Fold:
Amino acid sequence: MSALAWFAVLLLTVTSIGLLLARDWRWLIIYLSAQYFGMLILTLQHWPLGMASVKVVAGWMSAAILGMTRSGLPREDRVERSNVLPRGRPFRLFAAAIVLVIVSSVTPRVDVIMADAGFAVTSGSLLLVGMGLLQLAVSNHILRVTVGLMTVLSGFEILYATVEVSVLVAGLLAIINLGLAFVGSYLLVAVNAEEEVEPV
Amino acid sequence: MNAPTIWIVAPAFAAILLFPIRNQRVLSILGGTLTILLALSAQFIPIGEALTFGTSSFKIDDSLSVLGRVLQIRPAEGSLLAIIYGATTLWFFGAEASGTARSIVPYGLLITTFMVASIAVEPFLFAALFIELAILLAIPMLVSLNQVPGRGVVRFFIYQTLAMPFILLSGWLLSGVEASPGDISLAAQAASMLGLGFAFLLAIFPLYNWMPLLIEESSPFIVGFLLWILPTITIIFGAGFLDRYSWLRSSADTITALRFSGLLMIVTGGFWAATQPDLGRMMAYGSVAETGFALVALSLNSRMGIPILFLLLPARALGLAVWSLALTIFKDNDESMRFTAVRGMLRNFPFASAALILASLSASSFPLLAGFPARLALWENLSRLSLGAAIWMGIGIVGLLTGAFRSLAVLGMADEYSTWEIRENWLQGIMLGLGVIGLFILGLFPQILHYFLANLPAMFERLGR
Structure:
């Protein structure tokens, strides 16, 4: 079980860095979906399969909502290509490395606070929170902002699952994840609706 | 029958039924009538007591079980529900005049029910989840599908969402502190986490930069509704934390943090309100200062602070409703609320101008207006505890007053030979007129609120006693 948890942490490292570096929205959706699978494995350390699967199902549905919305939009939107400083891949990789260092240094302390949730669970959770915050800090594009918020929430949910086993909370968090995806999709459509009108 | 079904579940279903209605007037009347009925029933129908009608009797239970947790509306919370739904009525009846009924009525009612659910849910820290749901619902209300979302909406979305994890985790840490009260470092971590959560949720300095942006990007009337309901319920939720955790309530650091952040918001809100060349931004900073007043009230001795906190609520609701309606009328006229665009508008929009100035004066604690009694009581009690803090509060109020008088000067600065004409329609005139009368009534006769507010502190077990 522990090896599986560390595999999940590795998966989350790859997906969260991938989310930060990917330029094509299709890769964003693929990484996001894989990230929810990693989240399922870590949640399983403390929750039964039935409840933990709620998270992955809600996450995959959210990814599908975002993917379907983005695929329905006619072309690349202006903001995705805009210059938001800093934006280069080397910088993002460097920032991700700093997040990794911070996560590895604070994990032991947080693990003690969180009633010994387990190193793998704590580090996976903090990794997602850190990478999500980094995503929010370096981009103002709606899809990336939504993915960033979903990443932060995923990290939080992994940690919170170690201390709270409530069906109501699991349900509400699933609704919030879906709500984030719907709001992100709504804002994506709003951004592009204006662009379609503009050239006329 | 139980109270959560009447005041949470049923209005939520009603809100869903309102979505297909496209007629602004019908929506405004239906929404306003429904919320005023909810307000009156919350005030006058006792919860948990048997009511007898002839030979039959019935009782409204106070709780509803949902997935192993409980939504509970206690008898003492009836007046709070009356204030919440009563204030929502102001926005719904004003919705047609502002032209926003199709957004604000269905979404606003759904948001209100989620906020009421956040007060009712047990364990109470799950309130953060309901507040987050309300925030998600606010986005489509703020941005239409053919409008590019600006930075304000995106920041609002991010900041408010980030609050939820902090508050939920802090709730768990706080229960750990209760179990081992001697653990100072755990207490500090829990308090920091809680502080961060509320800093995001209440938009405490410097996290309020989305407010002025949002008011420029969206309808001021809708933003005004959010600037009323979100901080109001969040403050009550925050007071719940103080009520539950005695170590938090008795900690000198908590009191200092509350007072310092409150004064910081009053002073910075006042400073920016005095210096902005934009009427919309002034309302945003006025709202920032209002939240500051509430935080300062929480930092007082709870026996005095809690009644003052509740006294601040109706004035804030009415003031923001009038202020935001007046701003919406200006924005509909010229797409801008900057001084250059509204210069001399007093002669073209006399009702909106007068209402805007009086609402901003009320927020600035001007005598005879709704905001004055609560702020006077707050100032008096604060000065007994710390003269320095009272002086800082005074500086903030001077800033707000400066902003109000600048608005008056700009709106009155018409060309010498321009004529007077009333461009508001009759509905806007009536709504603004009633709002202004309300501001004077609450300012001249604040004792009429006593009937609604007297029992409110009883909703807390320890605060206010």
